[in-house]
Structure formats: C-alpha cells, structure tokens
Specification:
36% of the residues lie in helices and 27% in strands. The protein is of the alpha/beta class and 176 residues long. It has one domain: Spore Coat Polysaccharide Biosynthesis Protein SpsA, Chain A. The chain has an 8-stranded mixed beta sheet with strand order 3-2-1-4-7-6-8-5, sandwiched between helices. The two termini are 28 Å apart.
C-alpha cells in the first residue's frame, strides 16, 4: 500500500485572471479524482493535500476525505506531511497532473514483482516534439519512494535524479 501526497503549489494558471482560482481548484480536484482507481484497487490507502495557507484547500480536502497540510513551500509542506502518513511507501504527485490509464495496472505489477526499494518516477505526457522524441526529457510530476528517501527534498525532479529513480511507462496528463 502507498500513502499519497498531492503537492498543490504550482498548479496551472488560467489565461483569464477571473477564472484563475477556479482553474487551480479544478486541477487539484481532478488530480485527487485520478487516484480513485488506485484506492479501489487497494494500492493507495490515504492521501494528504499539501498547499499554501489561505488558499481554500480545506473544503477540497474535506470533500475528498484526505488530510490537509498548509505550508509556505513544497519542501516544508512535504516535511510536515511525511510523519503523518500511514505507510512507509509514498507516492508524491504534483497537482494539475493525473496518471493516464494503465497506471493502476503498472503500479500493481510494480508492487507485486518490481524492486520495491527502488524509487520510480512518473513523467508528464509528451507535449512537444522534443518530449515525444525523448520522453525522458519530460517533466517529472510524480515519484514513488520510501518515506525515508525524501529527507528534506521538496522538488520531485531533483529527488528523482538523486535517487536514480526508475521510469514508469505510464505518463501523467495535464488536468487543465
């Protein structure tokens, strides 16, 4: 089982300023909703939403039935969220991204047959010619690792490089 942390600091911005807050909240909700299949499959047990203070995330966390940590940046939020998780295996996902279909099957196979001690990175779906030709250049938006591997890291990309994380075949699409 995994515990999930959703980092809601760099959610996509809407082109229209009056719709920006609604777009941010919608991106977070879609990210949380993308984990429902993994919860039903018994792969994700609990979730914590981590975001900036006074951002109105309390209502989203309450509706989703997940925890909420408010912090000024991702590093301090992640550090505060890690001790409150139920399981030692953690899936950190950046809000605004949702794992594509096949993620649950790949995660199930990884948990059953893969190297459980090795970290694995989830990258954004290709969005340019360069990332289509070289998918490893796509932005890392999720990471599965042991709780103690996170340390004081707040950046998924830097942590994935430091842990020499394996690549998941599944990608994450933008939710907005």
């Amino acid at each position: 089982m995994l515990s999930a942390i959703i980092l809601a600091f760099d959610t996509p911005r809407s082109a229209a300023p009056e719709r920006a807050e609604t777009a941010k909240r919608e991106a977070i909700v879609r990210t949380l909703a993308s984990l429902i299949d993994a919860c039903v499959a018994g792969l994700v047990a609990d979730a914590i939403l981590v975001g900036p203070p006074d951002s109105g995330l309390g209502a989203i966390a309450d509706e989703a039935g997940c925890g909420l940590i408010e912090a000024v940046d991702a590093r301090s939020g992640l550090a505060r969220a890690l001790p409150g998780l139920r399981y030692s295996d953690v899936f950190v996902l950046t809000a605004g991204h949702a794992p594509e279909s096949g993620f649950v099957d790949e995660l199930r196979d990884l948990r059953a047959f893969g190297d459980r001690d090795r970290a694995h990175v989830l990258r954004a779906a290709p969005h340019s010619l360069l990332t289509r030709l070289a998918p490893r250049l796509a932005e890392p938006v999720g990471l599965i690792a042991r709780r103690e591997d996170f340390g004081s890291a707040g950046n998924v990309a830097a942590l994935a490089r430091r842990l020499r994380a394996g690549e998941l075949a599944t990608r994450a699409r933008r939710t907005i």
